[in-house]
Amino acid sequence: LFAFTLGYLVKYTINYKSVVSQAIDHYGYGYEPTSHEGIGGSNGKIPDCPYSYVISLYGHNHFSPLVDFLHPTLKAKYPKKYSLILDIMDAVHLCLIMVDDICDHSPKRKNHTTAHLLYGSCETANRAYFVLTKVINRAMKEHPVLGIELLRALEIILKGQDMSLVWRRDGLRSFESHGKESLLTYKEMALLKTGTLFVLLGRLLNQGGHQSDDLLGRFG
Hints:
This protein is mainly α. The protein contains 10 helices and 2 strands. The protein has one domain: Farnesyl Diphosphate Synthase (Orthogonal Bundle).
């Protein structure tokens, strides 16, 4: 009886430590505070939130060169709309990157530590949802048509992400299609995740118009 009790306690302690370790890793509390030279100021300290950190890696208004190329007069004629479009594109692109890195357990992003390893998975994911919610609300108030296009694109992108996660878990057999059709479904999944981002940009620039869908969808 003593041996049985001792064995149970040892097993329970090991399992408990395993669960605790998983929780620590998941929330990101097991990592030492990290500083990156040149990020967040001359003192090398990281920004105070995950989104600001990822912005510092990619740069604010990441899509401005493409926007300026596709619509050279937008900034001068409609500066508020120009700013909104760039903020929408930053939010969608970077927030989905933040969540993707959590899903993939990615350790690096542009050769820097990923946000969830610095701030924890929960704070990083919540900040992504918070930023997206704010930009949706802003778009709906300032340009409702753009807000509707943003919501449409997010639904499509997240559908692709959902398909990707299921595929990663179960492989091609997770798709209802088989053989060559399953490969086509895989390509559709990739297009939903990446091509939709560029289609969204065209829709925003064209006030919801579809005329650039085919061209910009190829970027995916």
